[in-house]
């Protein structure tokens, strides 16, 4: 079976993207896996610090590994948005396939220092583990928003600078970079976020030469994804739209079966709702 490193490399060469979808429960994991399996595409499961604390760090690792082994399927686990070296180490030691050190709020120097420490530790454990870093602030919460999050600025001078990005990648040896390119975490109520800056995406990609990761994919359009992927993005993260779908599926399941008390019955609609969203996104990411 291909490693995650190979899947991402292949995606970059083919100008498609690997989908990264967050979970905080088993239902979402099944919905995501079924969607990927129906299209025969590799997929990354994301678990942020909060999400993996809810499931359990060893438990989420075991769940994803069990699906990979049972189905002989390229499904991978990423330690999404991790804010300290200690928690990156914990995820690597638990067996995650990739980690993100999120030092977007730190000074450039501090971000370089801790990212470098994470890269060195990952390499010492298993050179196949991918390390991603963040440069540029894009907000922190996957939720439905009434306004662009505080601290996120979309004017050109606030986006990630390609020269700084190149310097950052050279100094840290990181495998993938998450830049600020007009994206932000969460989705505006109504479901349509401002357009991404494709020129900047291209400039950063050319400067750094490593795969770019688009965070905050909820609310972006099919055209945004296609252009970003054609210009250097090799992984796209979606979370808010999955959370919304899960909740709508749950409400539907409860409304349709008001007397049902078996979770495995009234949660079927949640699994299906997550599956549908993920399948739609994967089609966009792979020009299907
Ligand atoms: O790391 C998670 C993603 O960047 C999710 O962003 O909630 O806007 O889809 P989103
Ligand atoms: Zn993110």
Give the structure's gist in a few sentences:
With 288 residues, the protein is of the alpha/beta class. The chain has helices at 4-14, 26-39, 49-55, 57-71, 85-94, 108-125, 162-172, 198-208, 222-230, 240-256, 263-266, 268-285; strands at 18-22, 43-47, 75-82, 98-101, 130-135, 144-145, 176-179, 187-188, 212-214, 233-238. Residues 22, 46, 80-81, 142, 185-187, 215-218, 237-240 line the site of glyceraldehyde-3-phosphate.
Strand line-up across the major sheet? 7-5-4-3-2-1-10-9
N-end to C-end Cα span: 23 Å
Q: What oligomeric state is this? A: single chain
- Taken as a percent bin, the fraction of beta residues is 15-25%
State the share of residues found in helices, binned by percent: 40-55%
Structure description:
- With 288 residues, the chain is α/β, with parallel strands linked by helices.
- It has one domain (4-285): Aldolase class I (TIM Barrel), CATH 3.20.20.70.
- It contains 12 helices and 10 strands.
- The chain has helices spanning 4-14, 26-39, 49-55, 57-71, 85-94, 108-125, 162-172, 198-208, 222-230, 240-256, 263-266, 268-285, and strands at 18-22, 43-47, 75-82, 98-101, 130-135, 144-145, 176-179, 187-188, 212-214, 233-238.
- An 8-stranded parallel beta sheet has the order 7-5-4-3-2-1-10-9.
- Helix 9 (222-230) links the parallel strand 9 (212-214) and strand 10.
- Helix 5 (85-94) packs parallel to helix 6 (108-125).
- Bound molecules: glyceraldehyde-3-phosphate and zinc ion (ZN).
- Zinc ion binds next to loops.
- The site of zinc ion (ZN) has 5 residues, from loops.
